[in-house]
Amino acid sequence: MYGLGFESWHLRSIPGIAELYAAERRDDPTRRLEFIDALDPGVPRGDKWVIMVSTQYGCCVGCAMCDAAERRFRGNVPAQDILAQIRTVLAAHPETDPRTVKKLKVHFARMGEPTFNQGVLEALEALAAEGLPGLLPSISTVAPDCPPSAAFLERLLEVKDRSFPGGMFQLQFSVHTTDAEVRRSLIPIRTWTLERMGEYARRWLRPGDRLVTLNVLSAPGLPFDPARLREVFDPAVCVVKLTPVHPTKRATRNGLLDDWRDPPERVKERASVLESLGFKVIINSPWPEETAGGVSCGQVASSVSDIRNFRKSGSGFELSNV
Ligand code: SF4
């Protein structure tokens, strides 16, 4: 149905939780991406199905905790190849009709900063036309401070209101710290101030919409002032998600590792302070295998240096041509 320009491989299975894929452009194998087919443990696919896709080949941001930029950045993934990632996952489960899935979450949150890629908006419009009642797209952004990203976010507001009203869209800001200088060293590009994110979040929310998620890493070295967050963000508009930092190469190198499955006391305390300020708080429970490493953003694609040779060596993963 779409002009598919890449070859994809099923790299690894985490039974009952996730299938990990990598893909390379046929015309340029240096353009590699990763995508994931995931379930919430114990929840049937018909109730909730999560597909995580890449929006760039690598990432041009280079956050201090993420391995997406470990490989050389090779540009935006076109809409047709974003859709191909989704179709590859759907095709792997012919027994499940995506039109009957209660919550089909498509998370634009593997490799790449989505607001740099107008193809993400095209992919959203194409998905909206597919007639999937449970479709719930989710976009995570560091909120780059540049005209293309600002234009993207304005158009996203329109797309959400037109095609995904009533809580069928999730927007996430990667906040991580309330200290502007530390945030700049963590996310090494110019980004919106917290105030600008807060103002946008207020404009974003319409009756029935999902609250905007503020992602906050729990690493103890990252300064975090709950009162400052409350000054800027309205708890009637935003929910806070506290997240561990998995053992990526960069997080380890940068001393940011904070790898837990059950939240430590300090994380629970942070949650209760935020709750006392009126915020709803989600403590993000990772998959068991996430804590062991190897499945965080950017790690899947960089886990095999040469995919084609690895496949020829018979190392046990399938080829799927899309
Ligand atoms: S966290 Fe997102 S924006 Fe930052 S390097 Fe990773 S993929 Fe890029």
Q: Which key phrases capture this entry?
A:
322 residues; alpha/beta; TIM Barrel; eleven-stranded mixed beta sheet; 10 helices; 21% strand; disordered C terminus; binds iron/sulfur cluster
What's the arrangement of secondary structure elements?
Elements: E1 6-14, E2 18-25, E3 32-38, E4 48-52, H1 79-91, E5 103-108, H2 118-128, E6 135-141, H3 147-163, E7 170-174, H4 180-186, H5 194-204, E8 212-217, H6 226-232, E9 238-243, H7 249-253, H8 265-276, E10 280-283, H9 288-292, H10 307-312, E11 318-321
Parallel strand pairs: 4-5, 5-6, 6-7, 7-8, 8-9, 9-10
Antiparallel strand pairs: 1-2, 1-11, 2-3, 3-4
Describe this structure in words.
The chain is α/β, with parallel strands linked by helices and 322 residues long. The chain has a single domain, classed as Alpha-Beta Barrel (TIM Barrel). 29% of the residues lie in helices and 21% in strands. The chain has ten helices and eleven strands. The protein has helices at residues 79-91, 118-128, 147-163, 180-186, 194-204, 226-232, 249-253, 265-276, 288-292, 307-312, and strands at 6-14, 18-25, 32-38, 48-52, 103-108, 135-141, 170-174, 212-217, 238-243, 280-283, 318-321. An eleven-stranded mixed sheet has the order 10-9-8-7-6-5-4-3-2-1-11, covered by helices on one side. Helix 6 (226-232) links the parallel strand 8 and strand 9. Helix 1 crosses helix 2. The longest helix is centred in the middle third of the chain and has 17 residues, at 147-163. The radius of gyration is 19 Å and the shape is globular. The termini are close together. The model is unreliable at 314-322 (pLDDT under 50). Bound molecules: iron/sulfur cluster. Iron/sulfur cluster (SF4) binds at residues 59, 61-63, 66, 68-69, 111-113, 142, 297.
